[in-house]
Amino acid sequence: MSQEELQEAVAASPLFHGCKRYVDSMSVKVCRKGQIVSDRQMGQEILGLVVRGSVEVYSIAMDGREIMLSQLKRGDCFGIINLFTNTELPTVLKCGRDTTLLTIPKKKLLELMKNDKELTLRYACICNEKMQFLIKRIEFLTMQSGRNKLIQYLLMRPEQEGLIGLECSKESLASMLGISRASLFRELACLQERKLIDQEPGGIRIRNREQLETILYEW
Question: Where would I find the HTH crp-type domain in this sequence (predicted)?
Fold first, then answer.
């Protein structure tokens, strides 16, 4: 992988945005699809940045089910929330496909933050965004109805020319919603039959947002 590609990934990161010089403090790690990654490497605490591929973030339910919380892509980092605590991440990180990471020791990152106020402010901003995301996820996962979970997911997703692109497989989407794959297909078929959505090759198109919102808040 070229130095230019590594620098572009760092520049795309909300944390290291515009700080290509930090590449020299990082190491490259190549992982295979399905490989578990961690913020502990060779006995050292590290922060990881996705250069290529994807990393899926899972929470393990009491019954052993894996619930996908999010998917990290190019420029996204893991190992942020426990930067100042000596604790392991409470989630499981799994490569969704062959993935290239840049890693930096957390001790080195803390040194950089002491001398770079902009980096420290970006770190604080990302922590705020993660807290807001987790609050929404808690609210989302406490919903009882699989239909409500699906509708809220669709309403929260950004649209491009009216189409909601699915960035993961439907199996992964079911895991993210905390429902079975069969339930997901059943609810999608039901919403399409009621002419509220259309399933298209590139994703899902919402046909009646107002009616979806009515269903969501009535249940």
Answer: 144-210
Across the strands, what pairs with 94? 36, 56
- Judge whether 130 and 77 are in contact, CB under 8 Å: no
DSSP letter (8 states) at residue 163: E
Give me the sign of the Cα torsion angle 215, 202, 134, 126: negative
For residue range 18-34, what is the model confidence (pLDDT) as tens digits? 676 778 889 999 999 99
Structure tokens at 45: 């605490």
* C-alpha separations of 186 from 119, 150, 174, 180 in Å: 46, 11, 11, 10
- Percentage of the chain with pLDDT > 90? 39
- Rg of the Cα trace of the chain? 19
Q: For residue 78, which phi and psi values (nearest 5 degrees)? A: -130, 160
pTM: 0.67
Query: For position 219, what pLDDT does the model report?
Result: 47
Domains and CATH numbers, the chain: 3-127 (2.60.120.10), 143-217 (1.10.10.10)
The pLDDT tens digits for 32-77 are 999 999 988 888 899 999 999 999 998 876 667 777 788 899 999 9
Q: Dig out the tokens for 194 from the structure.
A: 């009621």
**Distance (Å, rounded) from C-alpha 121 to C-alpha 127?**
10
CA–CA distances in Å: residue 10 to residues 7, 14, 26, 103 = 5, 9, 10, 11
